[in-house]
Design a protein that fits this description.
By secondary structure, this protein is an alpha+beta fold. Helix content is 47%, strand content 26%. A hairpin with a 5-residue loop joins strand 3 and strand 4. Helix 1 runs antiparallel to helix 3. The protein starts with a strand and ends with a helix. The mean pLDDT is 92.
């Protein structure tokens, strides 16, 4: 989910029952020249391990049906030997973005004691 804040949010926020994780936090300016922060965010019930957090983030960005479609389109392009297909490029972009997100979650999780 995309969230907006007036002040830069913390990467992690904890309550007794939940943890909110924010990633890709960027500073933006609206048309009135007011600065705000925009990020992706997800809230999970505790306890949270790195794997659970990573899976939740990936599912937030790409639901299972979307991921299956990317894989099926990619496999279809390979079977048809159509290496110039948009499906190949979309799947490679997906893999690269997923790897970037996994590394970011891994690094963020390493810095915090959950």
């Amino acid at each position: 989910m995309i969230a907006k804040y007036d002040e830069k949010p913390n990467v992690f926020s904890k309550t007794q029952k939940t943890i909110t994780y924010r990633w890709d936090i960027v500073q933006e300016t609206n048309e009135e020249n007011v600065i705000y922060y925009k990020c992706n965010e997800i809230t999970l019930y505790r306890p949270v391990c790195r794997e659970k957090l990573m899976q939740a983030v990936i599912n937030e960005l790409w639901d299972n049906d979307k991921e299956k479609k990317l894989i099926n389109d990619y496999n279809s392009a390979l079977i048809n030997q159509d290496n110039n297909s948009d499906a190949v490029g979309r799947y490679i972009e997906f893999l690269n973005e997923r790897d970037r997100i996994k590394e970011q979650v891994k690094e963020d999780f390493r810095r915090i004691n959950l």
